[in-house]
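PROTEIN DESIGN WORKSHEET
SECTION A - STRUCTURE
LENGTH: 381
TOKENS:
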């Protein structure tokens, strides 16, 4: 770990008492503006101006807007805010990964709820791993977050705020470094929580992030990862249109029942059918299957063959994830030799099957390791 900073933001730790305007779509902002004394013919221009300042320039105060009437900006600042959630902690890994612990409102209680957001820089892209819930209900047995009980779903503004905070801290706003490419190019909804158990808020947040007049992330570069909540999977394709990843981890129901217990409700047969019918597959995209490599649990050559058979009708990419141990878990990571053999078999069978390089291990930011710092500290005391 390179450094650890605490209380690095001046923002109100208990979040905003008024609503954050960045949690609204363009059409909702246009509707909201009808509450103010603005000629109807100016509504669309004012909406665009606000959208521009919020999502291209990243302003945090209405008073920073220079091309709108002062009276209107004063009124807006009474009703809405542009402030972000607070950053309680920032940790930087030796490999460049950054993890932020964010404080969220806790219905007026003094201790804020907290979530984690992780930035993973790579040579040709920068990926932000975003959370959708505080805690999780699904108890996947290899996942550290799964040991933290669900506190609540995040709101749209809290999901969007994670991207805005990351852009603030990376100085990644339009015009800030005109010669450089954007630092955040990809979003993965793979942080804390099951995004499809918070479908409406996640959908709205992703549509705001991909709106081409503002943050403009390409839908191909935004991935929603689910543990397999079958009834919502088609809606991800038709209503959001982003890429889909499935936390698979085994091609056998009896093993998956233990690793991903939601499998008992939506077993592999239903999950695979939902994947085969995923609407975006018609546009030559692939579904990514996440497969954590656990020694003697799911890593045999037989397991690899079963996996190839299971996915034979789905355009797939299979990400092999070497298991990241965390305190108190019962699993071991498969040997690298075995992971390579597993990958080779699937590659030879025509699948794209990369082995994911572990990132941010020294700050517990790697896949499956996210868990609120405060919970850990509370347990230690
Ligand atoms: S893997 Fe995802 S769905 Fe499963 S417990 Fe962890 S956060 Fe929840």
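SECTION B - SEQUENCE
RESIDUE ASSIGNMENT:
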């Amino acid at each position: 770990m390179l450094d650890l900073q605490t209380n690095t933001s001046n923002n109100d730790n208990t979040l905003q008492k008024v609503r954050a305007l960045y949690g609204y779509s363009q059409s909702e902002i246009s509707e909201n503006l009808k509450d103010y004394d603005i000629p109807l013919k100016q509504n669309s221009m004012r909406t665009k101006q606000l959208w521009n300042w919020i999502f291209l320039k990243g302003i945090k105060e209405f008073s920073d807007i220079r091309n709108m009437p002062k009276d209107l900006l004063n009124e807006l600042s009474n009703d809405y805010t542009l402030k972000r959630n607070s950053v309680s902690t920032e940790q930087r890994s030796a490999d460049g990964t950054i993890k932020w612990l964010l404080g969220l409102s806790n219905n007026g209680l003094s201790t804020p709820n907290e979530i984690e957001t992780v930035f993973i820089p790579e040579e040709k892209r920068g990926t932000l791993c975003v959370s959708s819930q505080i805690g999780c209900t699904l108890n996947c047995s290899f996942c550290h977050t799964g040991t933290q009980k669900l506190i609540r779903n995040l709101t749209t503004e809290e999901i969007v705020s994670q991207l805005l905070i990351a852009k603030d801290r990376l100085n990644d706003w339009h015009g800030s470094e005109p010669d450089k490419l954007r630092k955040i190019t990809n979003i993965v909804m793979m942080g804390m929580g099951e995004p499809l158990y918070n479908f409406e808020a996640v959908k709205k947040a992703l549509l705001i992030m991909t709106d081409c007049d503002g943050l403009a992330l390409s839908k191909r570069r935004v991935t929603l990862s689910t543990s397999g909540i079958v009834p919502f999977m088609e809606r991800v394709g038709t209503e959001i249109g982003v890429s889909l990843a499935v936390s698979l981890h085994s091609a056998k129901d009896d093993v998956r029942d233990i690793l991903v217990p939601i499998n008992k409700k939506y077993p592999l047969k239903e999950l695979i059918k939902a994947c085969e019918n995923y609407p975006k597959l018609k546009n030559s995209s692939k579904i990514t299957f996440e497969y954590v490599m656990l020694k003697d649990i799911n890593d045999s050559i037989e397991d690899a063959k079963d996996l190839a058979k299971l996915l034979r009708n789905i355009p797939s990419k299979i990400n092999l994830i070497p298991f990241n141990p965390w305190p108190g878990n019962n699993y071991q990571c498969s040997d690298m030799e075995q992971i390579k053999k597993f990958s080779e078999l699937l590659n030879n069978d025509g699948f794209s099957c990369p082995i994911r390089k572990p990132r941010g291990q020294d700050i517990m930011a790697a896949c499956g390791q996210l868990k609120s710092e405060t919970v850990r500290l509370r347990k230690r005391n």
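SECTION C - NOTES
Residues 136, 138-140, 143, 145-146, 192-194, 227, 247 surround iron/sulfur cluster (CB under 6 Å).
The chain has two domains: 19-81, 86-380.
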